[in-house]
Amino acid sequence: MAMVDLAPFDLVGMREQLWLRKNEESGDYEVCCIPFYAYGLALGDVVAKSGTGTVDGVISKSGRRALRVFFADPRPPEGSRSELCSAVDSAGLLSEWNGDRHVAIDVPDISLMQPVFDSVQKEIQNGTAFWEWSDARNFRSS
Hints:
Elements: E1 2-5, E2 15-18, E3 20-22, E4 29-31, E5 46-49, E6 55-60, E7 65-71, H1 78-90, E8 95-98, E9 102-107, H2 114-126, E10 129-133
Antiparallel strand pairs: 1-2, 3-4, 4-5, 5-6, 7-9, 7-10, 8-9
């Protein structure tokens, strides 16, 4: 496990906990979760960890991306979330929820994403859902 200081991503005072797996031979770490807030990181990326337990930098990229969707107020209908979950499941994608309004979706191949985009398109157009790619900005440590 390691922390990411989110100040370089304009989230001053916030940190995100990431699950990591240590490679005993090289001493580096593989990201074993889908980041919700840190930019420039995705499942399977290899990172360096500082002595203070924070992620220092990216050693190599896994080729995966993370799509993050946030459901805002006014809350979209309950069916929207179910539809998104069904689209993610039918595409065989991994996802993690933070509460009932924020989901991070692992994207190993962009060609799998159309059903996911279709499932939240109405909420995006209504301004009740927002999305972003985790690699919209490069990773930076503080």
